[in-house]
Amino acid sequence: MDGLQTLVHKEIIDTFEIAKLAYQPFSEIDHLFSTNHSVDLKQIWNIIDKEGITHSVIYNKSEEHPIVLSGWWELQNYYSLLDDVSVVVAYYGNNVFEVVGFKELTTSQELPKSHSRFIYNEGIFVFDVDITPMKILRDDFAQVLRDHNYEVLELCGVNRMFYKSILFVPEDMIIFRLDVTYSNKKCHVYKD
Question: Which domain of life is it from (predicted)?
Fold first, then answer.
C-alpha cells in the first residue's frame, strides 16, 4: 500500500510536535512521542501530503533527545515553514507521517515543553556557559547542583554519545538543561 493510500485508509495513531529554532542546526522531536513509539519507529520517516507527495527525513532514534538529522530543509521549503516554527505531525504507523499544522514561535514561552530551550517548568534549570580556557563553573549553576544534592552529574549528548556528538571549540556556547524532578539527575547538554 503506498503512502497516500495509508493516509486515506488509516486512523491517526498519535500526533506530536517538531520544533525548529533558526539558530539551532537541527529540529527537535517531542521525546514522549519517540519514547512511546520507539519499537515501531525507523530511522527514515516518510512525510506525505494529501496529494501523495512524499518527503523523507532522517530521525536519530534517540528517546532522550530525538532530532531530525536531515531532510528538514526540503520540508521547510515545501511547506514554506518559518525559521522559528513548531510543526504538528500526525503518525499513521509504518513510518508514515503527515504535517497537519504549524505555527511561528515568537517567544520562548511558545516552545513545546519537550524542547531543550523550554525553561518554564518548575524543576527545570537551563544554563548557557561559554567555553573558556579557565574551565570555571558559573556560580548559579554550581549553586543549583549543591542545592539539589548532585554529587555526580551525568552529561547526555545525542544518542548517549556525548564525546562524539558535540564537538566543542573555544568560544562555543554550551547549554546545560538540568531537570531536578527526575531521580536519575541527568543533565542534557547542547551546543548552541
Answer: Eukaryota
Task: Return the bridge partners of 109, or none.
Answer: none
At a CB cut-off of 8 Å and minimum separation 6, what does 123 contact? 179, 180, 181
Going 133 to 135 to 136 to 138, the CA torsion angle's sign is: positive
Q: Tell me, letter by letter, the H, E, C secondary structure of 11-74.
A: CCCEEEEEEECCCCCCEEECHHHHHHCCCCCCCEEEEECCCCCEEEEEECCCCCCCEEEECHHH
Is this structure's pTM higher than 0.85? no
Please determine, for residue 114, whether its predicted confidence score (pLDDT) is greater than 70. no
Residues of the chain with CATH 2.40.330.10: 3-110
Which CATH code is given to the segment(s) 3-110?
2.40.330.10
Which of 111, 92, 95, 94 has its CA nearest to residue 17?
Answer: 111
- Cβ within 8 Å of residue 124, ≥6 positions away: 118, 177, 178, 179, 180, 181
